[in-house]
């Protein structure tokens, strides 16, 4: 019982202090400030961080512009060296930073470490990229002319992040932006400023090992939406990358567009998996369990809707119900825990509200109740909920950021794809099938309408090598791998005339 409840663990606050110091975060940046930080593990206070004001934010933008003007002239492979050093700092401090993610965001230990590994991976990717910021050479229609495109640094990049990937999302953006020649300003979630302070401390170590990085190249602004608003509204910030709820993205996207800035929006998902009659059910069960319950349902790519063919429904769902009723829930620091806490009380209330709506619609609900409330009255642990529901009603079309998996029964692939695409969000998706035609149909133009579509793996747990992001209310942004770097640069098309005459394009004549 001890290992389940987390008794015998060191007090969270004490461990936090030790980790912050080990990571080189100065005491003044997390003590005696105005914003209280609580650990979702126990609900106890683990920091009192000072916040930036909107005026501080405006000054940070000015510093960022100056840093950009110096950084853009540093050769890209040399910029890559700074990111390589950042990756080295992350490798050296993976254990401490991963553990801090666990304490502040409530992820189980292996997921905390996995998040830091993802940062290391994107640094490696960006280092290679620093020698591959390729533009095209284009055939000119005019004799003695050559066309090409050149990719240039674009300016300070504002990075607004969510609580659930408190450090990795910054690195997806920052590693690319830095090799692209941009400066960055980060506004982390107000729920997770401590991990952000730790990352900033590691960045500063990398910058001092690098030598000669301009002051203010990467800055951290702790604060709420008012500080974020400075980044969305300031014309000196040409790119704003914002990760979080669709509600937030609607505001941010509009404000950035109003001044013709570029936004990269990574918003809510409502991810589904289709299970077809030919599916390997053992594999499907494992894929579904991780995608639906992992991170306590608090991933943007969490599996939220399971669309199961009637032919395998009774073979799969009772097994899933058993997995749900036996999964280890508790202190995320404990071996054996797979489901840590929800981030806060509001998340718990949101979950109960959604379950009430499903219940009122006649759904059959397994789990969903609060657990461990006696020993952890200020923390919110829940049993993940499996909700068998007859129809895709309104609540199913809404992203509730908690471990709720709605199960819908279908009888054809066409019906399954229609249900799948019948929600406002378009982030990630998967199909479990061994039928080649079905798999390819799902990946085709008439299949999944999401930014990520998988076969025989769940929708969550993406690798950094691919472009990450989604369509519709997910916002349309792409980050991380593939050619996502282009969003952090500006493209110039160049035409060079190496002849002695001046032919005009399209045969236009203009003789003076
Ligand atoms: P949230 O929208 O409450 O907050 C996200 C960030 O936006 C925070 O830093 C917040 O301070 C800031 N913010 C809020 N309003 C703002 C405004 N008006 N102007 C500027 N900044 C503002 O989200 P959350 O609860 O922290 O995170 C959960 C949500 O994030 C879920 O919807 C999840 O799906 C989504 N998410 C998406 C991705 C993705 O890549 N698509 C990744 C992680 C999380």
TrEMBL record:
EC number per UniProt: 1.2.1.3
Family: Belongs to the aldehyde dehydrogenase family.
Assembly and binders: Homotetramer.
Keywords: NAD, Oxidoreductase
All residue ranges annotated as the Aldehyde dehydrogenase domain in the record: 34-491
Source domain of life: Bacteria
Pfam families per record: Aldedh
PROSITE patterns: ALDEHYDE_DEHYDR_GLU
Name used for this protein in its record: aldehyde dehydrogenase (NAD(+))
């Amino acid at each position: 019982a001890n290992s389940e409840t987390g008794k015998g663990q060191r007090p969270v606050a004490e461990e936090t202090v030790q980790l912050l110091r080990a990571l080189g975060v100065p005491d003044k940046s997390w003590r005696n400030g105005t914003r209280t930080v609580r650990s979702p593990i126990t609900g106890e206070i683990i920091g009192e961080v000072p916040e930036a004001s909107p005026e501080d934010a405006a000054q940070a933008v000015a510093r960022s512009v100056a840093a950009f003007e110096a950084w853009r002239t540093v050769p890209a492979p040399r910029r890559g060296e700074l990111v390589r050093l950042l990756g080295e700092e992350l490798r050296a401090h993976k254990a401490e930073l991963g553990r801090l993610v666990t304490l502040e965001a409530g992820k189980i230990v292996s997921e905390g470490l996995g998040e830091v590994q993802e940062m290391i991976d994107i640094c490696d990717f960006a280092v290679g990229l620093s020698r591959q910021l390729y533009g095209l050479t284009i055939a000119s229609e005019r004799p003695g002319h050559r066309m090409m495109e050149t990719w240039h640094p674009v300016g300070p990049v504002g990075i607004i992040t969510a609580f659930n990937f408190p450090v990795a999302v910054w690195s997806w953006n920052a590693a690319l932006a830095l090799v692209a020649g941009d400066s960055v300003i980060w506004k982390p979630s107000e729920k997770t400023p401590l991990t952000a302070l730790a990352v900033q401390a590691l960045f500063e170590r990398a910058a001092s090992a690098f030598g000669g990085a301009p002051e203010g190249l990467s800055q951290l602004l702790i604060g709420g939406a008012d500080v974020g608003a400075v980044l969305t509204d300031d014309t000196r910030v040409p790119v704003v990358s914002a990760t979080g709820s669709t509600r937030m993205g609607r505001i941010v996207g509009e404000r950035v567009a109003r001044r013709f800035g570029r936004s990269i929006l990574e918003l809510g998902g409502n991810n589904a998996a289709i299970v077809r009659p030919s599916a390997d059910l053992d594999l499907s069960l494992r894929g579904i369990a991780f995608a639906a319950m992992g991170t306590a349902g608090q991933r943007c790519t969490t599996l939220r809707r399971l669309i199961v063919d009637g032919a395998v429904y009774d073979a799969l769902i009772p097994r899933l119900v058993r997995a749900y009723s036996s999964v280890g829930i508790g202190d995320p620091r404990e071996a054996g825990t797979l489901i840590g806490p929800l981030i806060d009380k509001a998340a718990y209330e949101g979950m109960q509200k959604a379950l009430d709506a499903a219940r009122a619609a006649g759904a059959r609900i397994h789990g969903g109740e609060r657990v461990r409330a006696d020993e952890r009255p200020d923390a919110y642990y829940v049993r993940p909920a499996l909700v068998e529901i007859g129809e895709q009603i309104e609540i199913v079309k809404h992203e509730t950021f908690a471990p709720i998996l709605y199960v819908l029964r279908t009888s054809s692939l066409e019906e399954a794809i229609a249900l799948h695409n019948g929600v406002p969000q378009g982030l990630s998706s998967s199909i479990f099938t061994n039928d080649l035609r079905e798999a390819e149909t799902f990946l085709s133009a008439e299949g999944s309408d999401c930014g990520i579509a998988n076969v025989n793996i769940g929708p969550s747990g993406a690798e950094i090598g691919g472009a990450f992001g989604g369509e519709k209310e997910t916002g349309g942004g792409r980050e991380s791998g593939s050619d996502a770097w282009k969003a952090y640069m500006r493209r110039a098309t160049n035409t060079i005339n190496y002849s002695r005459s001046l032919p005009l394009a399209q045969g236009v004549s203009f003789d003076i």
